[in-house]
Amino acid sequence: MNALINSLIYGIVILLIVFTIVAYLTWIERKFAGRMQSRIGPYYVGRPHGWLQPLADVLKLILKEEITPKNVDKLIYNIAPFVVLIASLLLFAVLPFSEKIIISNSSIGVLIFLAISSLIIIGGFMAGWASNSKYPLISAIRGGAQIVSYEIPLLFSIIVPCIIAGSLNPIEIVKAQKIWFILYPVIGQISFLIFLISGLAEENRTPFDIPEAESELVAGFTVEYSSMKFAMFYAGEYAHLLALSGLGTILFLGGWKGAFLPGSLWFAIKSIILFLILLWIRWSYLRVRIDQLLKFSWKFLFPISVLNILLAGLIVILK
Amino acid sequence: MEINRVESNGFEELWVNMGPQHPASHGVFRMQIKVDGEVIKEVIPHIGYLHRGVEKLGEFLTPVQFLPVLDRNDYLSSVSNEFPFALAIEKLANINVPERAEYLRVIAAELMRISSHLVFFGTFCLDMGGALGGGSTIFLYAFREREKILDIFEKWTGSRMHLNLITFGGVRYDIYPGFDKDLKDFLKDFENKIKEYEDMIENNPVFLARTKKVGILPKEIAMEYGCSGPVLRGSGVKFDLRKAKPYSVYNKFEFEIPSFPDGDVYSRYKVRILEMKESIKILRQAIEGIPSGPINSLMPVKVKTSIKLKEGEVYEAVESPRGENGVYIVSDGRFGLYRVKLRTPTFYNLSVIPYLLKGALIADVVAILGSLDPVFGDVDR
Amino acid sequence: MVKALYITLKNLFRKPVTVMYPDKKREIPNRMRSPLFALTKDEDGVIKCIACKLCENICPSNVIKVIPSKEKNEKGRPYPEEYELNLSACLACEYCVQVCPNDAIVMIRIFGWATKNKEDLILRKEKLLENYEKYKDLISECTGEFLRKMQTPRR
Complex ipTM, two decimals? Predict the structure, then answer.
């Protein structure tokens, strides 16, 4: 009973914190992207730096008119945004913010993370199907193909730290890192790179954002949504990105370990740095074509990740 | 927003309409595409959304009044529209142009060439990258450089895009004190930046995979359809009007003509980047050697009938950033003109689209259309 | 491949080139041609225009209409009874400024003269004279005299 109330309180507090951070991640993105393009980002709302911009955006999205097309499949159309948002927020239940703070301490935390993150695209596919129009359908099909192809390299690159640490529990993995896992001789760097690329592809971010922002399919599978439901897709995407950065710091960058400051603060700083790196890649590269995307995954990433696992197994045996 | 209307026709073939409003817009252009899966079978283009009747206006406006109207034809490089008209009338009426005016005309033309190719560069990467993402970064960098050129034009003539600089017998505005310092600073900065942007894009395997071996235009087809400019030079034909039939003072400058034999989207892109570097060379030579003297050989314009032409016909052409821009005039001895025909480059360049798009994928349409660099003021006049 | 990342990082630390418009304005060059006009007056406050109709003759878009008066004003010159200039069709080509024999019409270097209804874009004589009073120090460097002097072939 005590543990239940503990988890509940942690859950509500972390939910509120995550919502605020997700809203401010959009502000960070716009400022960061603006500076890279030689311009100032948001400026007017909350002079001189525009820090009240997320509040203005949320207000605008709430007050917009809800337009529902006539021939949609009503049940699935209404449920799809909720699936995306809830699945993205559930990911935070298995990430440890420090040695003591974790909502649900289970021994297969990493596996649960991967399972829930595959549910997100099901929400996207439901949205594309229920919209009853050709262009969301094409984008949902392409999105499905892309995510299925990139699940496997993501899985294989996440397994390598688990093999070396010997457990699937995120707390154990952090404790087993004497030096940060990214500094291990060869397997550390390769795993991190594959994790980064597959994470970007799972996330539908440029250079892999074919379902979303193409110049023919204007907004992808969210094209028939307006107002608060669109905001839920949008917030779900940023929450997924933040959770992915969180997993990246736990597996590769040492989690909460660090001098002077408390553990959860180190976790937050490292996650935000990884998030900024993903943002930096988004604003510098052009977009790939769909057949080149699938070729890249199956012919290039898949063999390299398999070789990576064999190498990691060899190192564990030899030690 | 894009207007799409899809009709099913037969087993697997759909007619898709890429309507007059594109998100990756180069102007107003409509294409009806027959698609089988992802492969394109047939294309029917429709033009004429920007037709303003410029050739008819040439019949009742006098030549002096017609010059500012011609500026708005190819709105990204306005000097190359007035230039052939002024050359044609000067040939018919036997007017000499002083040498300082020729140098100033060449400087304006080459600066306009750099500015127009920068717009091509920015929008080409914007199409391929997406409005939120890497494409828009390069777009904003290219326009940042273009702003400096437009500032130079504003200090010189007063207007940023439609210069109205050339008149019969010379130019209308002389350079301001401090012009060569501004131009030299800009050229030095621009050379470094061009190198940076080239490195940024060309070492990217994504870009190379999307542009090499895509949209191949063989040499014979390009010559048969009447293409000119970078489209022709990207297919292996080394033809440039500045060297083949030199007009104005181009025979005093040393420069080269880039051309590549492949004929795909990458060669057309590379030709334009190298042309920008050649323009920098020409500008450096021109700014060193400007002679002093008057800028016009006729008295300034007072009434609209100040030029009287004898009977005859003449054709003069100029190398604009898009190809061969020519004007054909028939005059019958009164104060106006009997017929003005404008030979615009984009009209002929765009006619290879049904040939190029057959057999391509849908995702290539945007890259191919961007590499031809269409400006629809030119097509529809 | 990573060159692109390096260049974006370099630009992250440069100063942005934005000029925040209503708070700071950029400097306007001397010869700027934005289509706002004014009719000038001489030192005694009498209008300089002599209603010779040269500007109406040369305009490519026919935006100027001049109606001369039947008697002369106090300085012995004819003056325009009615002068109308339709800004919505003006090309800003500066031909009317170039041909005016005594610099009566000039262009003003300002942008930000947009109006809310279409009738305000048709400038009458009183509005043009009022523009001269308001924007006396923003007159462009290119008056008729300047342009003609620049273009005349000198001996």
Answer: 0.87
Smallest CA-to-CA distance from B340 within B329, B353, B332, B324 is with B329
Dihedral sign from CA coordinates of B79, B84, B89, B91: positive
Instruction: Give residue-wise pLDDT tens across range B302-347.
Output: 887 777 788 888 999 999 999 999 999 998 877 778 899 999 999 9
Question: Distance between CA atoms of B318 and A310, rounded to whole angstroms?
Answer: 65
Closest alpha carbon within chain C to B206: C1
Q: Tell if the CB–CB gap between B22 and A215 is shorter than 8 Å.
A: yes
Residues 6+ apart with CB under 8 A from B329: B85, B88, B89, B92, B313, B314, B315, B337, B339, B340
> Could you tell me the two tokens for A222?
């969210």
What is the pLDDT confidence band of residue C155, given thresholds at 50, 70 and 90?
low
- Complete domains list, chain C, with CATH: 28-151 (3.30.70.3270)
Which residues lie closer than 8 Å to A145 by C-beta, 6 or more apart? A290, A294
Tell me if chain A has a CB within 8 Å of the CB of C1. Answer: no
Residue of B nearest to C142 (CA): B158
User: Which strand ranges, in their side-by-side order, compose the sheet holding B339-343?
Assistant: B312-320, B323-331, B339-343
Q: Where are the domains of chain A?
A: 1-63, 68-318
Distance in angstroms (rounded) separating the CA atoms of residues B81 and B65: 14
Q: Hey, what amino acid is at B20?
A: P
Compute the distance between CA of residue A180 and CA of residue A188 in angstroms, rounded to an integer: 9
Residue B9, pLDDT > 60, answer no
Domains and CATH numbers, chain B: 54-380 (1.10.645.10)
The yes-or-no verdict on residue B271 having pLDDT over 80 is yes
Cis? peptide before B20, omega within 30° of 0: no
CA dist A120 and A80 (Å) reads 10
